[in-house]
Write a structure and sequence with these properties.
single chain, 95 residues, alpha/beta, Transcription Regulator spoIIAA, 40% helix, globular
Length: 95
């Protein structure tokens, strides 16, 4: 499997464009790597807002399987606040 994409500590509107661009570049670099699901590491996320969650939920539209690894407490709480707990549970894989 390819190396995981590490989400930044601040997954918010102020860095959403930069994070999106880095994520798209990572996806392009791993487009033909193998058939394994892509891993997005969410351990470092300390601050998240609606823009950050929108960026993550957009991954659902990928043609390739993916999962979140080690979601932080901040990410888990933000998902709960916005009614995305079930979505989060569907995309988290424990290693």
């Amino acid at each position: 499997m390819s190396a995981a994409f590490d989400l930044p500590a601040e997954l918010n509107i102020y860095g959403a464009l930069e994070t999106r661009d880095a994520l798209l570049a990572w996806l392009a670099a791993n487009a033909g790597a193998d058939d394994q699901p892509l891993a997005v590491n969410a351990a470092a996320v300390a601050e998240v807002d609606g823009a950050g969650l929108q960026l993550l939920t957009a991954l659902t539209r990928l043609d390739r399987p993916w999962h979140l690894v080690d979601p932080s407490a901040a990410l888990t709480q933000a998902c709960a606040t916005l009614g995305l707990s079930q979505w989060l549970a569907q995309h988290v894989v424990t290693d």
